[in-house]
Design brief:
The protein is an alpha+beta fold. The chain folds into two domains: 5-187, 2-Layer Sandwich (Heat Shock Protein 90), CATH 3.30.565; 191-281, Heat-shock cognate protein, ATPase (Actin, Chain A, domain 4), CATH 3.90.640.20. Helix content is 27%, strand content 28%. The protein contains six helices and ten strands; from the N terminus they run βββααββββαααβββα. Strands 1-2-3-4-5-6-7 form a seven-stranded mixed β-sheet. It has a three-stranded antiparallel β-sheet with strand order 8-9-10. Strand 6 (171-180) and strand 7 (186-187) form a beta hairpin. The protein is flat. The N and C termini lie far apart (50 Å). Residues 1-31 have low confidence and may be disordered. It comes from Bacteroides caecicola. This is DUF3298 domain-containing protein.
């Protein structure tokens, strides 16, 4: 296994004042502004380091978070939420450096637990190196992006996961979360949308979905749910408000991952409804 590389790359997108409670700031105290930064880690794990053609697993992590002072409790809370979204809540209290290292080792363990016993059985049974199945080769690529959202009141956080674990084809999916910039808490659909408005919001999303389907299929003939279904969209599910959405400056963008509303071959759908159309259904 190659030596893990942990590279800290500061990426300051734009300075902003941390949202701190008054009790955390002493009189006349100058608080260091938080900035967006990232930690990157790469490794390749071989099942047999003595054999150049040995199956292996390539892992790349790119974790974005806030670099802030120890007195900035709000940004620290944001980071805990980011770590929970990027991987899971169990590791959310670790420092960013230890967090990334722990995530890396978790993926290494997953790979070895998944395939090593089968690989060793093949070697024991005398399977030639050229006949070792390709599905022993894995790849994980998890990246994230962090940016300010609507009126600088929210953090827009996205995590994209590419995974190739020997199936029929690789898969990529996203997880999108809005974080309250004043307290570091993740927001849910119930926090954003007024109750009883799902149908109206879905009608707005449907309009955007029809436009996108026409664009992708280079046609202008799709104008209804039935037209979408004839093109392979929404065959197995009704349209719904996804958990993945971002409160951006121009509107709310909804993410439907592959398989959510359409077959894998059609990819994901990112559909933006302008605030002018949807604001009447929001709690904000």
């Amino acid at each position: 296994m190659k030596t893990n590389k942990l590279l800290l790359t500061a990426i300051i997108l734009s300075p902003f004042v941390c949202f701190l409670s008054p009790g955390c700031i002493e009189k006349n105290q100058v608080v260091e502004e938080a900035s967006i930064t990232s930690l990157q880690a790469d490794t390749t794990v071989s099942l047999n380091t003595a054999v150049e053609s040995s199956p292996n697993c390539k892992i790349h992590l790119d974790f974005m978070y806030l670099k802030c002072s120890d007195k900035d409790s709000v940004s620290q809370s944001v980071n805990q939420t980011l770590q929970s979204i990027f991987f899971n809540e169990q590791l959310s209290l670790l420092s960013p450096e230890i967090f990334v290292d722990s995530v890396m080792h978790t993926y290494i363990s997953k790979y070895k637990n998944d395939v090593e016993k089968y690989y060793q059985a093949d070697i024991k049974n005398g399977v030639d190196a050229k006949d070792i199945p390709q599905w022993y080769n894995y790849e994980f690529d998890i990246t994230s992006e962090l940016a300010k959202g609507k009126n600088n009141q929210f953090w827009n956080y996205t995590v994209s996961t590419f995974q190739n674990t020997g199936g029929a084809h690789p898969n990529t999916w996203g997880k999108w979360v809005n974080i309250n910039a004043s307290n570091g808490k993740a927001l849910t659909k119930e926090d954003i949308f007024l109750p009883g408005t799902d149908k109206d919001i879905c009608n707005l999303i449907l309009k955007q979905l029809i436009q996108e389907a026409n664009k992708r299929l280079e046609t202008d003939t799709i104008s209804s749910m039935e037209g979408l279904q004839s093109a392979g969209v929404l065959l197995d599910t009704d349209l719904y408000i996804p958990d993945n959405f971002l409160l951006k400056e121009e509107g709310i963008t909804f993410l439907y991952n592959r398989y959510d509303i359409a077959p894998y071959s059609m990819g994901d759908f990112q559909l933006t409804v302008p605030y002018a159309e949807i604001e009447t259904y929001l709690k904000l």
